[in-house]
Amino acid sequence: MAPLEMPTTHLNQHVSDPTVTKDRILGHISNDIIPERNLGSFVSTSIDGPSQQLMLENYCKNLACAHEYPSIKDLEKRCVDMIANLWGSPETTNHIGAATTGSSESLFLAILALKRNWQSRNSYLSSSPRMNLIVGSHAHVAVHKAAENLDIEVKILHVSDASGYRFDSAQLEPALDEGTIGVVLILGNTYTGGFDPILEVTSILDNYEGRTGVEIPIHVDAASGGFVAPFTGVSPSTWGFPIPRVVSINASGHKFGMVSATIGWIIWRDLQNLPDRMKHTSAYLLGTSETFTMSYSQSSIGVVLQYYYLARLGQEGFKHYILASFERAQLFSDLLEKTGCFRCINNAQFTSLATMTGCESAVKQGIPLVAFYLNNWAKKRMPLLDEETLSRHLFQRGFSVPSCKLPMDGQCKSLMRVVVRPTITTEILDNLLKEILNILSSYGWDDSLEA
Description:
Layout: H1 18-29, H2 49-58, H3 70-86, E1 96-100, H4 103-121, E2 132-136, H5 141-149, E3 153-157, H6 172-175, E4 180-186, H7 198-212, E5 218-221, E6 246-252, E7 264-268, E8 280-282, E9 289-291, H8 301-338, E10 342-344, H9 353-358, E11 369-374, H10 376-381, H11 387-396, E12 403-408, E13 411-419, H12 426-442
Parallel strand pairs: 2-3, 2-4, 4-5, 5-6
Antiparallel strand pairs: 1-7, 6-7, 8-9, 10-11, 11-13, 12-13
């Protein structure tokens, strides 16, 4: 074998030693940030021994091969059923769903279903209005990508301080018309982790339909909150399938669903909510099978690991991990504000530790995420320091804490975000806080001069 030169733009001419190749790759990526310190990410970074074994033994099984691997497809159905029940699927409905590559694919499928169902309901119109989708300015970019690719106008309602950085239902009714195919609401938004007021929006849409006869469904993007809300005492009757107008929900199993491999879920409340035009029969492999997802070949690892965590943790285990994450988020939020330099804008999602551990219903609507920014006192005393600069300093010290811009009415609000995933320990948060304090001190902060 020839000495290995790591290829960049063209393949090497000769075969290389596998161990040397592996070592070179490991060396190349060794300076990347440690996954547990990637604190702006929602993606799970833990994997225990049994799940590693399951991953190694099932990575080569294609989820599309339903007849070759019927047991894997059975696990997928079990996951769909268990998740649908967590989301309050009524016994009187017949839910349907599937595993996807992630919530981006799930959102595309959900919005496509909204479009197809709108077209079916309005096929009698001689001149169709422009189809539109209503979202908040805090919606994930995947929603905008799906709408753009499906030729659907996006009507954006800006969030604000007054709306609690959530969907502003007060702006909704003027935006509605007969071309509105649906409203996308978020259970755990990317910026602050808050839950949108789904019941409020439902009431507005109910009244609008009563006056106009125009039916407008809701899709809930629960990419981050779908595996949080069921375990914090937040009843599905306030956000899930018990609400008839909520026709579909998506979630990411690789976020608070604990799975380390990428996996998404899309579930419709009832069979009638999934248009027949989206169902396709495949006969490429042994036998025939029906499919409605965008991807075809897909590793079964995500499904197997999702079932593993659902089966292993159960209600009690998920509740333990989620509430413990809230506890650490509350502590970190309190310590940030005690510096006198920061304002944490989502403290309403937390409660005091004593209250939370004693009464699960005290946990507010949101996910364990700390969203914060430098307050006016800090900006006045340290004019050269802003959120983006602080984020850059932290990255240089081995922590990824992104500074993002939350689109608000006519402006963008700078925020920093720490997602307290179940694997983010108190030690990691303590070390992060120490680095933040060191950076503040380098800009002239003195804890004896707190605001």
